[in-house]
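Batch job 17 of 40 flagged for manual review because the log was empty.
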Amino acid sequence: MVNSKHRPQILAREAALKVIFQLKFNETSFDDILNSFVEKREYDEELFKKLLDSYTHNFNDISKLLKDSNEEIDSIPILDQCIIYLSISEFKYINNTKNIIINEYINIAKKYSSPKMYTYLNKLLDKIL
C-alpha cells in the first residue's frame, strides 16, 4: 500500500508525465497545455512545477547524457521516452536519491507502459544515475 504522505508526490509525477506526453503530440505551446491541464486528484503542485521546469530547461542536457551513454531511445514509444527524460530530470535537478527515483518511475512505468519497459527503465536508470 502506498503511504498517503507520499501519494501527492506520486500524483505530481504522473501529472507531469501527462503534460509532457501531451506536449509531444500537440501543436500548441507548453503554456497552453499547462493552462488546459486538469488533474482532479490532489497532487503536490510544488513538485509538479519543479518537474516541468527542470524538464523544459534541461531537455538538451538530458539528451546529451543519453547520447553520451550510448542509449538509443528514439526507437522506443514516446510515453516511455517521456518517463526516461522525466526520471533523469528529477534525479539530476530535484531529488538525487537514486533508489527513490528508480522505484517511483518503475511504478509509473508499470502503471502506464508495457511490462518490458519497467525492466528496461530499471537497467537504464541504474546505469545512468
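Reviewer: the log was empty due to a logging misconfiguration, but the result itself is present. Helices lie at 7-25, 30-36, 45-68, 78-93, 98-112, 115-128. Unflagging and moving on to job 18.
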